[in-house]
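Entry 14: structure prediction run for ATP-grasp domain-containing protein. Input pasted below.
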Amino acid sequence: MVLVLPLKLDDTAELLAAAARRRGMAVRQLSGAGVPDRLRRAGDGHLYGGPTFAAAVAADLDLALLEPADDWLARLPYHYVHRDISLTTLGEARWSRTPMFVKPPRDKWLPAAVYADGSRLPGAGPHPDTPVLVSGIVTFLVEYRLFVLDGAVHAASRYATHGRLDPAPLSGGPHLPVGPHFPVDPHCDAVLDFAARLLDDCAGSLPSAVVVDVGLASDADRGDEHWAVVEANMAWFSTSYAADPDRVLDVVLRAAGPRHRLAPHDLAYIRSTGRREGEVGSGGPG
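Run finished. Output tokens:
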């Protein structure tokens, strides 16, 4: 087995490379300009890297890259998101004259952020038909990244507190670290309970290997708090934060592996390896 990475490695790629070597895998870094014949013939490649890198090498390696559907978040029942979400186009979103949260469904060509109105969205570059998710504005008190494999949480990490980067292991649950260096997260049970309900109901609408972010949202008008889905992302370009890299690697290997090993369920979630309209670069990992 071979893990293929870009020449420039981020922290997650470094951790995954080390985890791959520990289990006896080869690790190869490619420029994206071409794939060596020996890797083309091997048929046992896997990938971690951005959309531009993936577009350059995945077809030559015959990889199936799994990702959630653009409208997955918008189709979730309200009790899993607690806000109105719609999948629309960049051109349509530009007509809005009210504050809104806008993000791309998957690729990070546009900063996910609150925009005062549609006039603040990019006016040049991405095609007006490029899909975007538009939602109401939500305040998340704490946010967690869940690496999901076969409908269950396989690895997890806190990544933000009050909107600021704050990585820490989600400690205390099954297969999650516990010890003097990993105090039990006070929200661990609540996170895993919410994730279990969500995945029991909705895992069938996701690829078998995927990243789902969830958070504790605060509703100032009602004075209450509730767990909600933040977003879903492809596992093969998602930051691991403080999650166990060995278990993250399990999810990445499934999410970006040989096409001939693909399970029937995942056929609906294969990413096209061509560049998408609106993609202006690889962006940073999710």
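Notes: The radius of gyration is 19 Å. Will compare against the previous run tomorrow.
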